Amino acid sequence: MCFAFFFFQAEDGIRDFCLSRGLGDVYKRQLYEKARAIYNAKIAEIELPRLAADGFNFRVAQPGIKIVEGKLYANSPIPQAEIRYTTDGSEPTATSTLWEAPVDCSASVVKAKLFYLGKESLTTDYKND
What we know:
- This protein is α+β, with helices and mostly antiparallel strands and 129 residues long.
- Strands 3, 4, 6, 7 and 8 form a five-stranded antiparallel sheet that branches. A three-stranded antiparallel sheet has the order 1-2-5, with no helix packed on it.
- The chain has helices spanning 2-20, 24-53; strands at residues 64-68, 71-75, 82-86, 97-99, 103-104, 109-116, 119-120, 124-127.
């Protein structure tokens, strides 16, 4: 109970700080991003498995990938999905290297796909200039 009280007090403080400095749009954007992340996580956790079990077809979103200071970073809008990638220019498959954490990468081209519930996303291409 105390945690919830302090959490909402902190939220109120952040809101008041943003609004008092004319940053209402920043606060609204932060709230929107937080709500969207929760919504997407619930869809992936609850609805997509139900749809897959009932035989419905759905699209899996693409992963985000980027190389920063020689390390390959990736993210997924579906926390339970696997990100598979290649560094030789070939299309990723369900048996390609699994991305789990930032890894050293000096490849000029990286391709990645998301795999979830027997579905796969479109390929994300990243060219390292």
